[in-house]
Design brief:
The protein has 234 residues and is α+β, with helices and mostly antiparallel strands. 36% of the residues lie in helices and 12% in strands. The longest helix has 21 residues, at 38-58. The structure holds FE2/S2 (inorganic) cluster (2 copies).
């Protein structure tokens, strides 16, 4: 049976070196059209990257090649985006691969959102993007360009009273180490806003993406039930 993989995969390693050097490929016969030399493969990759950069330009995002920054000569940023974080508009130079979580924590010093798993499995990094909860570790910062982000730092006014959900977590003692708490509170506010806090069972279901290693789940549900009436519409 013919080996399909050998016909469809690009050449790598010693085989590619022999082809690139023009050396005879003894015993292999004529090179099938589907096989790529290293040079062809590289040219294709560059064309794809150029097309991607063009797409970002169309979105109004400034790009430059790594090591040749145009947006921020200090940080070697690939792009400059505008984020509206907790009501304040800010421009930030980013690496295109950066997650929203890393930009918030490491560039804007908003360390309320926590990095638990960095894989979208624990909910510790939950923030609101245009009013909806997202796992900021799984959200590219570039996806948030021009959009509104709310973190735990912006949930209540700086000198004002706590948000009802924050107060309820305190009242119900719904935390132990506190590491998951900012994510729990942001998810809880969204849970109420979505209309998914009608019963303890429903709260457990719609908060199931937020893990608490300390096991404070019963108190978290109680806190959400306490805050739900006052949190609607917030
Ligand atoms: S850090 Fe984002 S889901 Fe765990
Ligand atoms: S309070 Fe410790 S992980 Fe939730």
């Amino acid at each position: 049976m013919p080996d399909k993989r050998s016909r469809s995969l690009p050449l790598v390693g010693a085989q590619a070196k022999r082809d690139a050097a023009g050396a005879p490929n003894i015993g292999a016969g004529p090179r099938p059209a589907s096989l790529l030399t290293r040079r062809e493969f590289t040219a294709g990759s560059i064309a794809a990257a150029t097309a991607a950069a063009g797409g970002l330009s169309a979105l109004g995002i400034t790009c430059s090649a790594p090591g040749n920054p145009v947006s921020d000569p200090v940080t070697n940023a690939d792009a400059t985006i505008r984020l509206i974080v907790n009501g304040a508009s800010t421009e930030v130079g980013i690496d295109l691969r950066s997650s929203l979580l890393d930009v918030l924590r490491e560039q804007l010093q908003l360390t309320g959102a926590k990095k638990g798993c960095d894989h979208g499995q624990c909910g510790a990094c939950t923030v609101h993007l245009d009013g909806r909860r997202v796992a900021s570790c799984l959200t590219f910062a570039v996806q948030a360009d021009g959009r509104e982000i709310t973190t735990i730092e912006g949930l209540s006014p700086k000198d004002g009273p706590l948000h009802p959900m924050q107060q309820a977590f305190i009242d119900q003692d719904a935390l132990q180490c506190g590491y998951c708490t900012p994510g729990q509170i942001m998810a809880a506010v969204a849970c109420v806003r979505e209309g998914n806090a009608g019963s303890a069972e429903q709260i457990r279901e719609y908060m199931s993406g937020n893990l608490c290693r300390c096991g404070a789940y019963s108190a978290i549900v109680a806190a959400i039930q306490q805050a739900a009436p006052a949190s609607e519409g917030t």
